[in-house]
């Protein structure tokens, strides 16, 4: 789902930096999906169909770029929650490492999206902890 949404949003945005962010999200989703599908296939688990066929060629934005970035941030946060839940319940070392990798990559992606929103003044910078050492 994330790959399709990032692809669709990248088609309709006018801002090149935001478009590149969505394309990066698409690639991240593709990497994660491929990794998961490889493990499922290796273990003879049946694979479901992709939802890519539902994507249109529209270039008309249904939402503002601000809202699209916000949606991607929320969905990425949900993904992180899922990876954390998966990590906490697996007993296989290889799967734990896979989830940890997903968390690291998705966390960096979310942070970059947040920084894009802060740069455009669409979101305030989150509060920081006071530096009590200096």
Chart the SSEs and their pairings:
Blueprint: H1 2-12, H2 16-42, H3 65-89, H4 93-119
Helix pairs in contact: 1-2, 1-3, 2-4, 3-4
Pfam family, one: DUF3231
Keywords: Membrane, Transmembrane, Transmembrane helix
Protein name: DUF3231 family protein
Notes on the protein architecture:
This protein has 134 residues and is mostly helical. It has a single domain (2-119), classed as Up-down Bundle (Ferritin). It is built from four helices and no strands. The chain has helices spanning 2-12, 16-42, 65-89, 93-119. Helix 1 packs antiparallel against helix 2 (16-42) and helix 3 (65-89) runs antiparallel to helix 4 (93-119). The longest helix has 27 residues, at 16-42. The chain starts with a helix and ends in a 15-residue tail after the last helix. The model has no long low-confidence stretch (mean pLDDT 91).
CATH topology: Ferritin
| CATH C-level label | Mainly Alpha
What's the CATH H-level homologous superfamily? Answer: Ferritin, core subunit, four-helix bundle
Mean pLDDT: 91
CATH architecture: Up-down Bundle
Overall number of domains: 1
Strand content: under 5%
Main beta-sheet annotation: none
Secondary structural class: mainly alpha
Uncertain runs with pLDDT below 50, 5 residues or more? none
The Rg value, from CA coordinates, equals 17 Å
Taken from the alpha-carbon principal axes, the silhouette is: flat
Between the first and last Cα atoms, what is the distance in angstroms? 46 Å
Count all strands and give the number: 0
Specify the helix fraction band: 55-70%
Number of helices: 4
What is the H/E string? Answer: HHHH
